[in-house]
Amino acid sequence: MATSRCGCCCPLRRNRHYSRFDCDDEETPLLSSGESDHHGDVQSSSNKDYESLDYNDKLVRNLPFDLLLQEHERDKHFWIKQEIMKWVVTFMIGAGTGIIAFLIDFIVGKLSELKFMVVEKSINECSTEGCLAISLLYLLAFNVGFVLIAAVLTVIEPIAAGSGIPEIKCYLNGIKMPRVARMKTLVSKAVGVLFSVAGGLFVGKEGPMIHSGAILGAGIPMLSSTTCKCVDCRYKHFRTDRDKRDFVSSGAAAGVSLTWRSFFCAMSATYTLNFFRSGVDSNQWGYFFLPGLVNFGVFKCKTGDENCFLWTTPDLLVFLIMAVVGGLLGALFNRINQSLTEQRMQSVQQRGKKAKILEALLVASVTTTLTFIAAMTLGTCSQIMIPITTNGTNSGSEGVRKFFCPDGMYNDMATLFFNSEEIAIKQLFHQDGRFGISTLGIFFIFFFFLACWTYGVGVPSGLFVPSLLCGACYGRLVATVLVDYFEFEHSHLGTFALVGAAAFLGGVVRMTISLTVIIIEATNEIQYSLPIMLVLMV
């Protein structure tokens, strides 16, 4: 197997019974330092030998820890302190992941708020011919600038591109991935996904959060870093591959819990996130019952509407048909994305770092231009309905965009395109105002193909929330057709949007039970368990 240091550099490596973590502090690169620096980017698996992790404690020993055991051989409290330290380290991983998630969410919100405020102000003040071009230039300047930062960061640390989940899966399955758990990767991933989302790309931040938590899980227990040489405490505990794998799993679980509000590490991460969000957002420090970063709001019929049901037994037949179509759409998404990835590897990847940056800027420019033109020319004005508010959650009126519509009305296309993906999902789930069939169809086509093109570009990105939004639009489109042409007056539009989101997401990620739990947790409605489970199983 290939290793990063020879036996001359590390005498302990001459003894095969001792772990490489006796020498390496954070991670063992797959290539020698000179070879890695020469090529820069992470090479393909065909050009290098991958090193496996050693989970057998009987064969792989930790010499510093063994010496420590000899010193405390008669100390009755040593193992108690050892177990307590595991809990302390796990808490630190969760709290650190929560702080990173809060900062990402907070800064993305502020950057998006600034961007949309400037653009919307320019549009509302537009009174002369051609002034909309200035508004488009403002939007392009924001989005291209943000995406440029994200693309440069992934050039600096190539493994930070994408969601990071495949790399973490490989690591947990015993494959030593290059540079997957370094501090440099964490900074590039966290800051990069922040600017990718704020830059208007159709990507999510959920996968990168899982990767960020896993990196903290790899680094915090060892209290050292190969990236930052000043951090080197030479902590003697938890230095074997098995210990590191356990803490990486805890960090990944913390990243999942932050997204979906889903035991000790995940709990500490969620509470840390809610502590800061409650203070910054509502000045109620210490309120721990906020939903996760992705929540679907409250599904509820309008007060006094006795003919409204969230779902009925006859609706199950429609849900099953939607499941089949949604699964096929998800499979089509994967197939197109696979073809684009193969073409990207043959064209963009072979042309170096500049080509990767230019591709990201091209995707950002095309996405911004198409969405702006669609919102300005293809949107229709609809009446703003009274929102349903439960426990302080404004479900319906949050993020409505007026763009050239009279008072009391909103531009349906602009409301979907000129908001964050989470707010757009809430609009499709809870806005009782009308989204036209043409609006939903155009938005679905644009979002489907642009998201498919975007996923794989050289920026940190996730796919979970974009898939949910695309599926929610598909479900709302089906519900609108049923109401307009088949007199399904009893149908709750948000339920069909939720089922469509589950069907499309299930077709993309191909998960069943775990995805059912995640969606039910996000909706906080156990009565949706049967239709969602049926849809995902189909």
From TrEMBL:
Ranges where the record places region Disordered: 28-49
Keywords from the named record: CBS domain, Membrane, Repeat, Transmembrane, Transmembrane helix
Membrane topology: Multi-pass membrane protein
Compartment(s): Membrane
Keyword Lipid metabolism included in the entry's annotation: no
InterPro entries: Cl-channel/antiporter, Cl-channel_core, Cl_channel-6, ClC
Primary location class: membrane
Sequence intervals crossing the membrane: 84-108, 132-156, 186-204, 210-231, 252-273, 316-336, 357-378, 435-456, 463-483, 495-520
Highest taxon above the source species: Eukaryota
GO cellular component: lysosomal membrane
One example GO MF annotation: voltage-gated chloride channel activity
Acyltransferase as UniProt keyword: no
Record's protein name: Chloride transport protein 6
Source species: Lingula anatina (Brachiopod)
